[in-house]
Amino acid sequence: MTTILIVDGDKEFVGILSRGLRRQRYLVLTANNRRDAIAHLEAEPVDVAFLDVMMAHREGLETVHEIKQRFPRTPVFTMSGGSIRENFEFMVQAMEFGATAGLRKPIDSSQVIAIVRSLPPRR
Length: 123
Fold this sequence. Notes:
Layout: E1 3-7, H1 11-23, E2 27-31, H2 34-43, E3 48-52, H3 59-70, E4 76-80, H4 84-97, E5 101-104, H5 109-118
C-alpha cells in the first residue's frame, strides 16, 4: 500500500484531502507542522510527501530541506496558495532544496492520485 504524507497548517484542507485519498485505499499520514512531519518519516517509510511550502515562519521550506537531507529518496511535492510572486520565490527555493515539483492550491485528491500513480515504484 502506498503511504502518502500530507503536511499543511490548514487542518480543514488536510482533512478533506486525506479523506479523499483514504477512500481510494491509500495510507495517509497527516501533520500540521514540521515536527510532526519528521516524526512520521522517522517512524515509518513514506512513499511521497505533499507539503505546504508557505507554512508560517518559513517552516515549509525548512521542512522540504530537512526531508531531502534526511530522507533523500522521498519525493516531495510542494503546495502553495500564496500570491504568484511570493509563490514563485518559495517554489524556486523549494526546488533548490530538492522538491520534485510545485503545485498551486487548491488541489484535490484526484490530482494527488494522478501524481502518485505517475511515480516510479519504490525499491
